[in-house]
Design a protein that fits this description.
The chain has eight helices and nine strands. The protein is α/β, with parallel strands linked by helices. The strands form two sheets. A seven-stranded mixed β-sheet has the order 3-2-1-4-7-5-8. It has a two-stranded parallel sheet with strand order 6-9.
Length: 260
């Protein structure tokens, strides 16, 4: 039987845990995928209730676990996901959000190319056939997403590098040293681990069911920092060579104009 560890970072998502778990296991059972669900919960006001719900679901027979990180262990989505990958039970690992914007019913389709060995990395995309938005985004939010996506295109072959709904393996992950910065851990893994081939799977990105969005201006700035580091990792030598060529051109131009 195919096996899959599903890693879900959570922060005060108590209202979403039960429906996420029930819908996920219904879909993977129908697809014949043995699944372990691991919640990576950053300490919040909702942590005690989240832990209670997990125990209740365990008592009902669901293969669900929770790791509650104290503030001293680290904070943030990316570091939580990377720690979750380390603690994952199976070789095949999938990350998705807890807010149900990533439909649990899409997990088998997103995981399938990795489970079958057809791709090293698969990603749930809004921008391919069968994908899209299940609600109306504001013009501002659409523009932010569009610009952020365009900035990442030179780093990956994916049509939707902003997506946090992705699947890969521990073996692929071990090839690169990922930086736990910001929210775009999928982009980080694709770029650092040189994933190839990458396959996009169409998903419908739904409206948040409960809880509040964690996106802030700080996260936008961290994304720009992340991009700079990834560009240097991928194109650092090229950037240095181009800079040296530019200096040489400036030198000869200045010399020809008798400035030096």
């Amino acid at each position: 039987m195919k096996q899959l560890s599903v890693i879900v970072p959570t922060y005060n998502e108590t209202d979403n845990i039960r429906p996420l778990c029930e819908r996920l296991f219904k879909s993977v059972r129908e697809a014949g995928i043995e699944t372990d669900l691991l919640l990576m919960d950053d300490e919040s006001a909702g942590t005690p209730e989240t832990e209670r719900i997990v125990k209740e679901l365990q008592g009902e027979g669901f293969s669900i676990r929770i790791h509650s990180r104290k503030k001293g262990e680290g904070r943030g989505l990316s570091s939580a996901v990377l720690l979750g990958f380390e603690k994952a039970k199976y070789e095949n690992i999938l990350c998705m959000d807890a807010d149900l914007q990533h439909e649990p019913e899409s997990v088998p389709a997103v995981a399938d190319p990795v489970l079958n060995g057809d791709a090293e990395f698969t990603l749930g995309s809004r921008n391919v056939s069968g994908g899209g938005l299940g609600f109306n985004w504001s013009f501002k939010r659409r523009m932010i997403s569009h610009v952020a996506t365009m900035l990442a295109y030179p780093l990956t072959a994916s049509s939707d590098p902003m997506s946090g709904f992705f699947c890969t393996t521990k073996s692929v992950l071990s090839r690169g040293k990922c930086n736990p910065i910001g929210f775009k851990i999928g982009l980080e893994v694709m770029a650092r681990c040189r994933c190839n081939p990458i396959k996009d799977v169409g998903i419908t990105f739904r409206e948040r069911v409960a809880g509040e969005s964690k996106l802030t201006m700080k996260q936008n700035l961290q994304y720009l920092e992340q991009l700079m580091l990834l560009y240097w990792d991928r194109y650092g030598v090229v950037i240095v060579v181009l800079f040296l060529i530019l200096l040489v051109c400036i030198y000869f131009l200045a010399h020809s104009l008798h400035f030096i």
